[in-house]
Amino acid sequence: MDRTIYQAIVAALFGLICVVSCKKETTDPQPPVHTGSKKVLFVCEGSLGNGNASLDLFDKDSSRFYENIFDAVNKQSLGDIFQSITLIDGRYFLCINNSDKIVVINKADYTLQGIINIPKPRYILPVNSQKAYVSTLFSNNVYVINPQTLQMLKSIAMPHKNPESMVLWENKAIICTWDTSASMIHYMDVQTDEITESVNVPGKAPQEALLDKQNKLWVLSGDVYRKVDARLTRLDPIDGKILKSYTFPAGTDVVKPRLNHAGDTIYFIQVQYDGSTANNGVYRMNVETGKLPDEAFVKAGTFQYFWAIGVEPGTGNIFIGDPKGFSQKGSVVVYAPDGTRLNEFKTGVGPSSFYFDY
Question: Would you say residue 163 has pLDDT above 70?
Fold first, then answer.
């Protein structure tokens, strides 16, 4: 099931226990022009149907935080459900899922450069300066765009619905299709845009793919809403050989797997939507380990769950986003690798991912 729909259900449940403030927020100052300093961009989904997605920014060198910078610069709203951000040749491409568009802004000053109309865009995989793939929801289409001209060139039909995460490996795009009838990942030749092979993975509904330091592929699969248990599998992308596969506890949603900069540690979120704390929090493990971790790196509290992880290059600091049920402003807490709490930000609604512009 699409998490944009699931978000609405979760928000309704959490609305029974969350006290939502109606206080009007003051407008943050205009964000600075990019000066080469280190910046962390916060993707805040917004709440489904309310058009309140936002792009927040932390300037690490000045230690200043700017909320909703797209609106501040361009004097217009970003749209409904901000799914992902991708940097291509000095411009950020923002997938605004429920608004059926990709918003393109300048990296230096965040001004609007153009809009590409794509149905339900999810993620973008740059291939070269003139070609990128866009995965989508509710269809089996992957779209091809030209990042220079901002044109949609064509669509490619996948074997299953909901193409989701994509990763570039050699001259192939490895594509997950988040469909409970699917148990394969697909290899697409980036020169011909044709699927050359499909590889079986344990479990159903593959949704995320990552390459670790040894160039081994990690695939997260599962769909808790449709009672398909989550599985995390490590395989060799050369021959498809399964190296390890882990099954999570039944009923546990597993989201947002992320590797650290070294590619030797994988982080992921386990979620319980019923307010319980078991199997709920941020977990991490070495890519060579033999079992899932028993304890969370950061535990979620009662009626709490997390929705975003980002691992900062260089420091290894971990950014963790709490959506607070998508019914109010979210928060992001930063931890050192040893678990020391370093910083906290009050963000837009539904912080869901991060981009480290270093």
Answer: yes
